[in-house]
Design goal:
It is built from 11 helices and 6 strands. It is of the alpha/beta class. Strands 3-2-1-4-5-6 form a 6-stranded mixed beta sheet, sandwiched between helices. α9 links the parallel β2 and β3. The longest helix has 17 residues.
Length: 261
């Protein structure tokens, strides 16, 4: 599918008599990146597809590919969750190893992806960074969902990418945490009770009221739809939230961490 889109893009570019450098200049990319798009090695964002459609006078032809190409940005195991994020009323997330993708800075993302073993190809890293940043438009949507984040203190102790990366990440968390529809809480290391010891998970409530529970393990995932199980997960998240530091305490805690760097 991605290869077919790339071939269509190339055909339309040649029809307009543009070389890769000229076309890239008009859509804000280098000739090398245009080549990656056309060869299916890198996936353009929906906005890039819209711009390309306009520049190449494609009359909406390229835009017809947007949904499928956007889905292909994500690893197969995450595609279902990515679709749910676009139509959710509420997202409740508990994280134990790394900062949630919706809250990550670009530098933090790159540090995590660079640590993967076996190593990821450069095109794959760029693709995943682009996709993860695109997901963050959830904060600025006209009808933004309610977003709840609880993360273990250990997540913010790891200096992945170095001190400067962690400093930037903490500053970003403090900024995002000021949004009225966002609540960030920290589960302290010295807590004596934690209902989330089984690991990270996300409870999604769709706009029609249906709930889902998403969890990842290595390169696989589960998306639970059973009403009883999703209700239990939502209740468990409520307990986790009550055991973590309150939102204001969590903000002060992160300010203290930032000051100590």
């Amino acid at each position: 599918m991605v290869a077919a889109f790339g071939q269509t893009l190339k055909t339309l570019r040649l029809r307009e008599g543009l070389d890769r450098a000229e076309f890239g200049n008009r859509i804000g990319y280098s000739a090398a990146t245009v080549a990656s798009f056309e060869q299916g090695r890198r996936i353009p964002s929906p906005r890039t597809i819209e711009r390309a459609d306009e520049v190449l006078a494609a009359g909406g032809l390229l835009c017809l590919w947007k949904e499928e190409v956007e889905r292909a940005q994500y690893p197969v195991f995450f595609q279902g969750m990515a679709a749910l994020e676009k139509d959710c009323l509420e997202l409740l997330m508990y994280d134990t190893h790394v900062v949630n993708g919706l809250l990550q800075t670009e530098e933090y993302m790159r540090a995590l992806l660079a640590m993967r073993r076996p190593a990821l190809k450069r095109e794959t890293i760029e693709q995943r960074v682009t996709a993860r940043l695109a997901r963050q438009d959830i904060f600025t949507r006209q009808s933004a969902p309610l977003l709840g984040f609880v993360m273990d203190e250990a997540v913010l102790r790891h200096r992945y990418g170095g001190t400067a990366v962690l400093r930037g990440q903490l500053e970003h968390l403090l900024l995002v945490g000021q949004d009225q529809n966002v609540e960030i809480q920290i589960m302290p290391l010295d807590c004596e009770d934690n209902a989330g010891v089984n690991g990270p998970f996300t409870v999604v409530t769709r706009r029609d009221g249906k709930k889902f529970v998403y969890a990842e393990t290595h390169a696989t995932s589960t998306l639970e739809t059973d009403p009883e199980q999703t209700s239990l997960a939502a209740a468990r998240y409520g307990i986790i939230r009550s055991q973590a530091l309150a939102s204001r305490e969590s903000m002060r805690f992160m300010e203290g961490l930032l000051a100590s760097l």
